[in-house]
Amino acid sequence: MTPRRGPVFVQRRTYRRRRTADGARMLPILGAILFAIPLLWRGGGEAGQPAADLAATARTAWVMGYLFVVWLGLVVLSGVVSRFLRPEDDDPDDDPDAAAGGHGGR
Amino acid sequence: MVALNVLVLVCLLYVAFLFAVAFAADRAAMVGRGTWLRSPIIYTLSLSIYCTAWTFYGAVGFAARSGLEFVTIYLGPTLVMIGWWWTLRKMVRVGRSQRITSIADLISSRYGKSNALAVFVTLFAVIGLTPYIALQLQSVTLSFAIFAEADPAADAYPGEQSTAFLVAAGLAVFTIFFGTRNLDANERHHGVVMAIALEAVVKLFALLAVGVFVVWGLSGGLGETLARIDASPIARWEVPGSRWVGLTLLAGAAFICLPRMFQVMVVENENEEHLRMASWAFPAYLMLMILFVVPIAVVGLEMLPAGSNPDLFVLSLPLMNGQEGLAILSFLGGFSSATSMVIVAAIAVSTMVSNHIVMPIWLWFTGGSAVVSGDVRTVALLARRLSIVFVLFLGYIYFRLSGGGEALAAIGLISFAGMAQFLPALMGGLFWRGATRAGALTGLGLGFVIWLYCLFLPSFGPSGILPQALFDEGLFGLSWLRPRALFGAEGMDPVMHAVMWSLLLNAGSFIAVSLVSLPKPIERLQGAQFVNVFRHSATPGSWSGGLARSEDLLIMAQRIMGAAEAQAMFAKAARGQGIAGYLPEPTPDFLQTLERALSGSVGAATAHAMISQIVGRATVSVEDLMAVADETAQIMEYSSRLEAKTEEQARTARQLREANEKLTQISVQKDAFLSQVSHELRTPMTSIRAFSEILRDSDELSERERNKYASIILEEATRLTRLLDDLLDLSVLENGQVKLHAETGRLSELIERAISASGVKDRIKIRRRREAEKVTLHTDLDRLAQVFINLISNAAKYCDADEPVLTIRPQLDGDRLTVDFIDNGSGIPTDQHAVIFEKFSRVGQARAGGAGLGLAICREIMGNLGGDITYLPGQDGAGFRVSLPVPEVAVQAAQ
User: Fold this and answer.
1) Whole-angstrom Cα distance, residue B682 to residue B686?
2) Given CB atoms, is B85 within the 8 Å cutoff of chain A?
3) CB 3.0-4.6 Å disulfide test: which of B62, B362, B382, B862 passes with B409?
4) Residue B340 belongs to a domain with what CATH number?
């Protein structure tokens, strides 16, 4: 471990920038969770049963609608976040890999 | 009904249009126009080769068979794309900074430029891609067949096999034409990218058009369509959780690992910033692409007779309802999806095959020496072309063998599962410094074997390649080795079963072996550069070399990159170091740059091997170790800076020594010349004096004798005059007092004139390139002819070959004309290069007559004409390059 780390407090702009990058990293996780939610809706019923008890189970049409709404939301979010993301090569502390780099070397 | 002929015609017209677009884009890129070719929109659209015919036809079939499950294939890439800040950005940065040409190159570079790894990944990719290419051929064939069925006069339909063959052959031609035009994979294929971007628009538009037609034309509106979905066999949401999550992961992994995706995403990437737009635009594209898939599947299931192939609903629905235009559009969409995928995949795989398999073997066969003469580029290009044909042929063979009977989705998933095996080695390589070559090899090998055994070979059917007994009883009769129930995991979905075991064991063994094995220094160095790419963008050098090798390096680089580019690169590097000419100091920086440039043509592993042949073993310097070991960074940085300074001082000292040597040499030459000039002046003077005395003093000379003596006097006087003329000429040129008489003339005539004026035709054979000589010049032709004459007669005088040959090679390079004069003698030794253009200098101490002023005059003339004359090292014999600016008008006239 290096005793030398970046300063504890950084400028407001740098701080904002880093949190935007954090947001960008969180986006796929958010997406994965939202896309997995329909799995909770199965509402019983094995494959092959007649369509009569359709009301009791989740319907393809509903799930489809949900997926497309989530999808669109992700597209918009991703568009907004990527607009504000700026590369910061001059600021290596931004990169978690870089910060963790000290552990890798043997 | 649409006649098949019309369809074929439309198809051919479309292909011709694609050719035209690709050609125009290539041309625009070549002349430097068309910045829009490098826009983020084109990049995003080119990513759409993810949507192959499998998407266009197969998604509907997939939906008709198992409901919403098909969406997972597009959810995975969406998640990867919006997570670009994590993985894709790093991959693109690494790809650009290391000049990566393919995914095999990336993996091999990361693990110490290991060629074994590259070969393995390449073979794997070829095997994994073959079913996928077969799938594309199958889809085009099927769609042709459905039109043929509908056409009553379709006797001329050539049959499925020959359609597939024709399509494969056509694609091979297109790919070879636009994919192997330039050698350096980093130069990017603008034509191909433009064509696939266009195809991306066509297929999206086609699928949307069919969707709109189905929803509003056939179903009667949105509400009506939703009601139909509720009434259909796929109305209920009943996707197994394991498949939902598993397929999403698989698709995401394949999106990163597929060689063709890697090609468009990393290799063809112009600018890292393009990812910014692609991060939201590509998910949007995917969403639009599958927007109408469920409605089309539902309406198809309802309207078309039972038993019709759901993979072709996109085509058969419009056809059945008499919408011929729409059917053709839809056909073009499917055709676009299939062709664009095959083209890019063939380019990607052929690059890998030629760089990692053919080139190393060829280099090894030709003696393994990097310093023989001859051009490697033609071999590399030929290797790529043959690999393209080979890959497409393999796809065609698979198509014939598998009989084309399987559902499209099944084949696609097999290929995905195979390519996903690269994921542990790839991600481990990018994010974990402890990952080693041994680990990567073990993981990939194990994953490959399990994929082959559990998924690929069983895909040929129970009685295909694997016998039925194996399925029932397992390998060697061990029931826990059954391909569909490995380690007793019974009742799982076969695809999920194979993906789970192969990826688990792959990643597990990769990590385990990495933990216990010790990497070589170069592996650790590369690992640090990959993992910390955002900090080490300017990478430390790892070569050290001496001056004598620069010329060898140039010779090698000329073979691989082409003479002009290599010379330009060396000259630029030399200028950067403040040295004139073509031979820069082989500093670590320069060697690193050279290696990267070469790896663009032949792959990292080969480039590294070739350079180390010439320079010797790569040394891992203090600076490099510093990158590996971060802990004591500061102290080491200080000491390595000191070391770099010392090295720089040593280099400066060497340059000073060289300059000093040059000065001493010139001074020696000047002394020698003074005595030479006195000698040259005295000899004729002595004979003039002697003979004029004879003429004056003796009366009984015959007329003949008198004549003879007088002509000797005249001859000697002429020699004196010529010597004085030369000296005068030189001083006029040097002082810039010369008057130039600019005229217009043809280069070919000028060379002709120079050859006849030098009168050497019987002493040396002259080889010319008449075609390249068709250039119009506007300059002082007499002066230029003087330079040419000097060079030609020099060659005749000094070339020591048994059968002297002089090659005159003109070349137009933008607005500069260069004319190379190369003979086949032993050339000029390296230590003499610096002084041959100095006054009074003669190579090999007065071997032939002349005062050593010729080349000095040439240099002054060229300087006055705005051009230059330089010695061209690295040729078969002595080579001189005359370069001259040519005005724009003349260039156009020449073309």
Assistant:
1) 6
2) yes
3) B62
4) 1.20.1740
